Structures are given as C-alpha cells and as structure tokens.
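Allow me, if you will, to draw on your knowledge of protein folds for a short while. I have a record of one protein: its chain in single-letter code and its fold written as discrete structure tokens. Kindly check, if you would, that the fold set down in the tokens agrees with what the sequence suggests. Thank you for your consideration; the sequence and its tokens are set out here:
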Amino acid sequence: MDLDGQHGQLVIRAGILAGAVACAALPAQAVECRLALALAIDVSSSVDAAEDRLQRSGVVAALTAPEVTEAFFAADLPVALAVYEWSGRYNQEMILDWTMIDTPAALLGAAETVAASRRSHNDFPTAMGYALGFGAQLLDRAPPCLRKTLDMAGDGQSNEGFPPASAFREFPFNGVTVNGLVVNAADFEGEVGLIAFYRGEVIHGPGAFLIVADGFDDYERAMRRKLERELTPPSIGALERDTQDAG
C-alpha cells in the first residue's frame, strides 16, 4: 500500500474512533421521546361530581380525537404521557404514570386508563403551588425527552399553601413549559380575575400559553385544542390561536 493509501486508511480509522468517542460522550440516557407531557386535573371542592365527569370524559375524547391522534404521531420520536389529579396541599394522585405513546394502541390504552379512573378527593381546597411542585417532580423523573410540558387545568385561583411563584423558585422547572386551561365556570371567580391569575402566575416557560373553556361543557374542545397545539411538532409551524386563547 502506498503512502496515500495508508494516509486514507488512517483518516478513516480516525473518523471511526472520533465517532465512537462522541457516542461515548453522550449522556447516559439517550433521548427517547420528543415531548414529556403531564396533564394535571383539578379535583378540588369547587369541582362537583358532574363537572368531574365532564372533565374526565373530555380528556378521553380529546386524547382520541383524530386531529390529536395525528399530532401524537406527527414525528419520528414518540411522546411520553402522564396524568394526575390535584386539589389540597397533599392531595395529588397519579391517574396514568409515564407511558410512551408510540403506537395507536398505546394511546387508546392511556385514554382507557383515564376513562376508568375515579376521583381520589372531593373536599379539599385549591393548592396550586403544591400541584405545580408535584408536576415538576413528576417531569423530573420522566423519560429523557427533547421538551417537557406541564398542563395545569382548573376552575379557581390558588387558596391554600404556597403560591405558584414559590413552586417555580423551589422545584425543578428549568426547561419546563407550563400551559394553562382555565375552566371559566365558578361564578365567584369572575372571568377576568381567573384568566389574569393563570396568565400572570401559572403559565411559565418558553412558549407557554393559556386556553379558556367556557364552563365544563366546553372542556373537551379546549383540551383538544390545547393538545393539538402542544403535540404538533414545532417544525411544522405554530397553529393559529383559537379565539378563546388568552395568552
């Protein structure tokens, strides 16, 4: 073999070695999914039994809507999904632990788990800070994904425990986007005050947005619209905002 040939072989071998070193330098946990998405459902005392049924069935219908299903599988990497319910300080319960939505069957199974769930609490106040802290810790143990999103849905302002600002300061929210779904249903809250609370204190992080449901009867539409927007890969382009988007 001449010198030029030997040099070429050395270059090839060096390239292979560099590639191996680069792979070894990658994090121990390689990326498994494009989005870790946690849905938080409000079961505080302001949500009665009928309203709880509407929001639970609304989540199920939204997850299985054709446009949401299409968004789940719009990219090569899958989505990791978790669902929990929240109310008082220490009243957070898992409905669906982290599940990789890598097939239509997995998505249907996740929806069926939510459909079969029963609320864990019904007589506690609205501890938004604790609910956010629980969500941050849940996302902290999610599969390694490119992005992390927490969805806070509720019909009232925080009225127990520490405020959302304390949660954002004390819990691992680095790189986490918190979106909001306001259920404008409680007469004593008033539309402006509740929307302002979510906009000013709840939504957080890059690209965070807020969607408003006009009562629990509108929960399915709002959840479907929100999921479609969150799940559509950024490369496809942002969806136009719904007329009821508030942030």
Notes: The first helix runs from residue 3 to 25.
